[in-house]
Known about the structure:
- There is one protein chain.
- By secondary structure, this protein is mainly α.
- It has a single domain, classed as Na+/H+ antiporter like fold.
- Helices cover 77% and strands 0% of the residues.
- It contains 18 helices and no strands.
- Helix 6 runs antiparallel to helix 8 and helix 7 runs antiparallel to helix 8.
- The mean pLDDT is 82.
Amino acid sequence: MDSSASIEVAKHALGVFAVILAVGSLFGLAAQKLRVPDVAVFLLVGMALGPEGLGWVDINADSALNQGILIFGACYILFDGGASLRLRVLQDVWVSIVLLATIGVAVTTLVTGYAAAALLNIPLVIAMLLASAIASTDPATLVPVFRQVKIKDRVAQTVMSESAFNDATGAILTFALLAAASGQGDFSVSHTLMGLAQQAGIGLIAGLGLGYLAALLIAHEKLSFLAEYSPLVTLMAVVAAYLGADGLQASGFMAVFVFGIVLGNKDAFGFSMEAGEEQKMEDYVATTALIARMLIFVLLGSQVDFDLMRQHFLGGIAVVAVLMFVARPLTVFVCTLPDRRARWSFKEMLFMCWTRETGVIPGALAGMLVGMGAPQAQLIASVTFMAILATILLQATTTRWLARKLGILEEAT
């Protein structure tokens, strides 16, 4: 590509960003006034601005620019979510989180996979591949939703933690099933579990190490020489946590989330910042996370392929309905009932049944399957986008209403 062509590409990208930020800001304010999660509004805005709408936003899903935005945006939102969690709350519900992020993904995949095989008339291994791609919940959606809708701490933090940790499970399961569907090997439960343990363990260690180092540099009594640059430190560390863990064949998303937990709970490790510096960092993180989710969900909406969705509409909607109304409730009850320590109420479990938005990570997995030429990849991408649209537009927008009805809003207690 010559220099003039490169300049035109750069101008186009800048123009797209300007449109997204300008229109996104207006509709973000509208979402705030209407008291609905802004991610749902951004998704609709993206559909309106995309190639099948006004045509103002047109960035290919498989481009390096798009993938970079999705990866960094999801990482920063995960960091923001991790930083909002409190260790004292997680101590009471960690059993539920572990079960939901592991066994829960398997239960969701099995139930949805068998339904997809019957409803779409496809081989079972392909149906399971589809189900595994949409089995994990989405932190990029859930974190901002719970930022805006104040739910009881232990419920919100359980669902956010599950969404961060189950991405690794969903990705590992997806690629294990891809090997079987492509005839490159048989699906092995033991091999999949070993891969999950390795990715989770290394991601956890990487996140802990970088989180402690960042806290040391910005909040230690004597060594905090980067305290004034704390926002920049968080930015660098988020990228380092993801790339470092990914380079070690581990879950970069888990590393970023754990990094956020450590930095958000730095007082538990004996670190503290001056009030002014702490506020400056919080304001920076909040603004950056807003820009990240604006870019992510407007782009995601602009890339919805309506022609592809129409081809498999009835069967796809039926599969998504099973995912939402059968697989998710079964998953929640199977994984939370054994946790006697948490003592979940029926209303809390009912709320968790409804909060399982599909978003960036499943969308990225579906895009990777298309790029790799996986069997029935177009069908998988079609149903994935149906799941993204249905869960975000139906579930995210009704979160506040349901929480109020069930009496688990913070303001209702």
